[in-house]
Here is the input.
Amino acid sequence: MKSAELREKYLKFFVERGHKIIPSVSLVPNEDPSVLFTTAGMQPLIPYFIDLEHQAGRRLVNYQKVLRTVDIGEVGDDTHLTFFEMLGNWSLGDYWKDDSIRWSYEFLTDKKWLGLSKEKLAVSVYEGDSEVPKDEEAADIWKSLGIPQERVAYLGREDNWWGPPGITGPCGPDTEIFYWTGKSEPPARFDPKDRKWVEIWNNVFIQFNQGMDGTLKPLKQNNVDTGMGFERIVMILQDKESIFETDLFESIMSKIQSISQNQDDKPKRIVADHLRAATFLIADGVVPSNKDRGYILRRLIRRAVTYGRKLGIDHEFTTEVAAVVIENYQNVYPELAHSNKILEELNKEEIKFRQTLARGLKILESRKQITGAEAFDLFQTYGFPFELIKELAEVEQSEEFEEQFKKHQELSRTASAGQFKGGLASHSKKVIRLHTATHLLNQALREVLGNHVWQKGSNITEERTRFDFTHDKKMSDAEKQEVERRVNQWIGNDLRVKKETMPLEDARELGAIGVFGEKYADEVSVYTIFNPENDDVISREFCGGPHVAHTAEIGKFKIAKEEAVSAGVRRIKAVVEP
Ligand code: SER
Here is the structure.
């Protein structure tokens, strides 16, 4: 089965079972500065697991691109990737374990769908602990479907628990589905440590909200969040031993092969994975830099160039590979159609890195051995990948390097952990109310102060919204009161909030404003706040949401502070009270 057909079949199966298709979101989480990347299909759905109503209903399905850097060290083996696609289906307080497990089983094994061998399936379920009981319910459902006891493993938090993606938020025990990929017959007993049992699908029973202190509070509703590793299932369906041999990678790998000087497979796989990831990241608006997302992108490109070097590729090649990625995927992910921008950014970074390489190589070549501190300097100042330094020079006092390197990693980890604080999980009702209030504030400011007001930035926590905008003098008390009055009047009128996705051009034509993050996406989300009685539009902004459905949910709006940020930019902090 071709990979394209699998995407279609999956959607069809769940649509037939009452699911609505939702689009794959950007790899850069919209309007959420607290996480670096979209790492799972469930991420944009977090508020809906808690208490928000999803416009598409309670049963959702999609394919979603995701990026995870945790496995970067394993990329090059048969099954690990940084960028990959997930097939996901969700129940937002609707169906529960029974339907979820039965449907997964039916989709995988029924001849009408994937028709995989039942004899090659195994599952794991949650073994239980002092807080959450052993998941006998899931185990019994599996057994009732014919999975024998010895193919059911009971595992703990490390393995059979999913989420929250940040520090706090929705999470729960899961049941994972494995498929035997060995050439021999599968052993009767399932051993989760045997790598020939490949995990293909994860059904998470999201029923808890994890607090800052790690405690679990039951959610109001039981949710299901499933995610199937697309490349892995394609590998199985196409009877290949590695994901890099599937139709998803075939032309990418043969491109790399055609410019390589050697037959070594692993570096080719790393180049393929990293450049595929980089292509998608740039398409979603990330550019190489030394910080956060840009830094990850830079690392991916630089590692790809380094491994290209190992393959004996000495010309600029990243765009050649990216062009094949674009060709392969642009029908499914139209954001890739902006290929000039993607190729330009890649090439710029490759050229920059090649210059760095040349400089660093000079330093390295003049010396046989370098000290740990010098090695670290090469890593930090020149962005030399660690692997390359080790390969090129014997590093003296390598503990010193390792130590510095560890410290550096520690720092980066804390920095990114900091990013999660108050993150996704705080897409709580409070944050959502403030989100919509911020749109109304934007509009009121434009009406009261004038159309020179443009949003320069915003940041929302549980406590307040902070809104920066262009305006060059202090607001008078009367102006502040008038802004508050308008916002509160709109809240009182119980306006409706509607989300639509549309081509960027249409959104512009409709006069949507706001900070537009997905620079290269064709389809954008637009939130319109309007009066349902006469269809008057009060506000229309580009935004990833989420928002309340009725403005009456917001509460009373109050400006807490108005101050200068820089020349020509003012800042308002505002709160809402029930
Ligand atoms: N969130 C779960 C995962 O990423 C299931 O979709 O594995």
